[in-house]
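Model the whole thing, not chain by chain.
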Amino acid sequence: MRVMIAEDNVLLREGVVRLLTENGIDVAGTSGNADKLLVLVDDDPPDVAIVDIRLPPTHTDEGMKAALKIRAEYPDVGVLVLSQYVEVGLAMQLLGDSAAGAGYLLKDRVSNVKDFMDAVARVADRGSAIDPTIVSALIAKQRKRDPLDRLTPREREVLALMAEGRSNQGIADRFVITLRAVEKYVSSIFSKLDLSTTGSDSKRVLAVLLYLRG
Amino acid sequence: MGTSPWVSSEPSSDAEVIAARRQGWGASGSIRLGLLAFGLLVGAAVYIDASSRGVPPELSLSVLAGYSWAYLVAGSIAWYARPDSRIGGLMTAVGITGPMLLFFGSQVPGLGLLPLVAVPLMNLFLIWLVLSYPSGRLGSWLDVATVGAVTGVVAVANLLVRLFGPEVLDYGAWVMLTISTFLLGLIVHHAVKASTTARAGLAPMLVAGVLVAILFSGESVAWLLGINTDLGSPFRWAMLIARVAVPVAVLVGLLRQRIARAAVADLLVDLGVNPGPVDLQAAVSRALRDPSVRLAYWLPEFDSYADVDGQKIELESSPGRSSTAVKRDEQTVAMLVHDSALEDEPRLLASVVSAIGMTIENAQLQVELRARLEELRGSRARILQAEQSERRRLERDLHDGAQQRLIALTLELGELGDRLDGDSEMRTRIDSARQEVTASLAELRDLAHGIHPAAVSDHGLAVALESVATRATVPVEVIGATQDRMPEPVELAAFFIVCEALTNVARHAEATSAVVELERKPGVVVVEVRDDGVGGASADTGSGLRGLADRVEALGGRLQVWSPEGRGTRLRAEIPCG
């Protein structure tokens, strides 16, 4: 797997590079700003571009713009946006009409090595990685309305993991249950929420997020 | 006094103001009378001379009336009424030189040559008069050149006719026709480029000027067509009438100015005792018949001029605009900025200015008050701006400093923990240390957000509001939030308004839902938050709402709260947004 990174904080960038390299991922290019990242991606598109949302020169939305540009112009490149604050609106902007190959995580998540590697791998495989903060905020929002009350607590946990972009296998591993059991939960959730079950994991992410967003 | 370009040239008293600004030919009354008498004498001489040659008396008298008396009388009146203008002098000059035309053919030795000089001179004064009305000063080199050309051509034509007989006019007429057409064009050009106010004053003379231009062309055309132009011919009579148009126009102009001055009395009645700045300006505008009139109030404490709204203004001279000082107790209290055309009515201007001086006190106080409020608003806005910049800087420092370092630290701890596969106790401790740091990071994140909501500045109001609505305790519908960015202070104010309103909804309203609505109107954004709760909120009781109102007012907007008991709360802010 080839990954490129745009992060202006050297300490952090080096840390992430080291982390990825140690986990057997090929870091094909690094950059301290958005423009250079775009050049790197254009030269030789990687599997995933990891982008800090705040990049020079203004440190506002340069990273976000670069991420959207990559998603629009290089559909085969996964984009994982890292930020020190997460916003539902930005997540939805990033996903657009597809959750495939899109990730949006709090920067802190890099410290959970296993989870972070899993997220990078999912984004590289056209899956998704949505920060649990966003998912839990959306679920909390929907709980104010009633439909989520129909779900059992375990079903709500499964729903959250689905929304984060995890696969059935990932969910099974997390709860230490069988794949079959997860599938049962999923179909129960979907029928309770009146959602159609067809499609890939990333389609499922978008459907669930849109449902939760209301 | 300020550094306005006007202040240095500020005249000492308003009556002198205008007189000093425009120099007429300051001929004394006796000189004027002398010239009038001389003109009449010339007329008498012309009449006697013509009679002696057998010219019918009615013919000579009609020429005298049209070429001399009309000009002498109107000229004397104009000179008396408007000593600052050269028009009176020019009219008198036409009246003196005009009748000398009749010396043509005189048997008195030498007198027959006089028209060679007098006729070109009369034309010189007449065209000068038409092109320079109402000041009597020619405005451009084009005007000067035209006057010169007409005079020259007439002089040469007369000389040639005298030397070679009237046949030379075959050529001269074409030249004359060309110049007449040009003169006509010039008069039309004057009319077009004049301001509305100026054009109204010019109107009578424009009509007369067109007649004069046609008169010159007419002479040439008549010659080319072989029409009889002898004294007493119908053509000559028509020319005579056209000539009288000029003195009539001057008299009409004077009459209109007189009527306008009488309107100043109405102005005083209009103004009453203590008019406000807006009423004062409107009344002055009516009295001067100049819709562009502006009063600039001098505010000594601010060392600047201010308009009726108390907004600081720079008085800069621009073409077509003039200004006249308004005085009260010898002190300049305001500048009346008006159309330059009004300088040709110095008496009107002087009386209006002194009328303003008498009644301006209240308006000036009001303007000063408005200027103070404006200044206060400006300083509030600056304080707010400074606070915002400081908060943004703090947030960025946290982000780039502590937060990044801590994240790097958690990364390090995460890696360490990952390597310690075998040693589970150590691994657990490292993991818990990592989670501690992560928890600190979350607190730091909240702190940073509390200091400055970076999402608003970085990604705009719409993105930030979605998160606020998502986290709200009741379902919130957001209407009208678009990705279009607004100035940062406006977006931040709108954001804080929504946050505070939704916090109040959570705390007090017992609402089941709320609506956040944004509406962009020209120059203003309206932010409204409504809930279906119990109502009873007040901007005066809640310190949060008071703070919001301060913030909105600092931006020149206003915040209103409707919260009748039992019928929900509606909070509405209008924020100016360029």
